[in-house]
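Methods: example folding runs. The two proteins below were folded one after another, and each record is reproduced exactly as written to the output file, sequence line first and structure-token line second.
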Amino acid sequence: MSFLIDPPLLYASGRAYARATAGEPDERRDAMVAATTMAVFWGVSVSLYQDRRWTRPIWRLCRARSGRDWMLNSGVLRLDSSRTGTATHVVSALIFATYPVWLWRGLRDGRRS
């Protein structure tokens, strides 16, 4: 998971779920699926950003130097992930805060189609 991949993946997940459950609205189930999805995304992504030891296999598989390197650069950008400060942490927190919006938009668009 990374800041470049997570939003489209959340959107696609919401859209796929909405399509799979079309015609079967169940607010309780939908809320449970959304909460579980967010727990997984936040749990893994925040742990990567914090360089938790258990995430090492994930970021190594992605050929990153650390979990934070993977979250910030995604193998595409060239930001110095070892020199992050308050501004980087604040922007990262704001990006994490948008995650439910991406899932919700996918759910909404999937229900409309």
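Second run, written to the same file directly after the first:
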Amino acid sequence: MEENVQSTIVDTPEAFEPEASASTESSEIEELRQQNGDLRDRMLRLQAEFDNFRKRTERERMEFAEYAGEVTVRALLPILDDFERALKAAGGAENELTRGIQLIYNRLLETLTKQGLEQVTTQGEQFDPHQHEAIGKVESADHPDNTVVQ
């Protein structure tokens, strides 16, 4: 017995034109490479934007912390001045109240020093508006003009 074998031929353009299928595959590969390059470029740009955002956020956080500390120190300075006046008014009297005021003054001064405050001696120096804050002006024959008296 003999069998009849039939084969089926599929009509596809690639079957008849091998160069056409190679050029189609080549253009698809080139298009995929282009997409890959575009995606890689986009990823690198997003990475750079994120890095810039992170740095900017850190810088703003540091500036805010510095500013917040400055505001706190400025708010506490008049209190420190009040303690100094209270100690001066006590006139060197040694009692429990004076010692208590002195302890509070010392702790406040120590805390402000830890925050970066520096005590500056200004009495007798020339007034500098960038460094000093004038409360009032006093006429004095003992001191030259624009000299910090107190």
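Comment on the second run: Residues 30 and 36 are 10 Å apart (CA to CA).
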